[in-house]
Amino acid sequence: xxxxxxxxxxxxxxxxxxxxxxxxxxxxxxxxxxxxxxxxxxxxxxxxxxxxxxxxxxxxxxxxxxxxxxxxxxxxxxxxxxx
Length: 83
Fold this sequence. Notes:
- By secondary structure, the protein is of the alpha+beta class.
- It is 52% helix and 13% strand.
- It has a two-stranded antiparallel sheet with strand order 1-3. A two-stranded antiparallel sheet has the order 2-4.
- It has a domain at 44-73.
């Protein structure tokens, strides 16, 4: 199963306007995005009574996977102005 995630090529469309990734167009992208959201929501619910621990944990969970999103976006991350 792991080899399916190691398959080369983009998982996310490039945004038409702005910087960053658009929506996924392969199932690997959808699984990655949903797992990312689930990790953030689950951590925030589990640590709701410990805000001093929750804040850095959410910060790390939110930003740590950004290099994967950038590497798996067609054309990479760059500013796009609709051209």
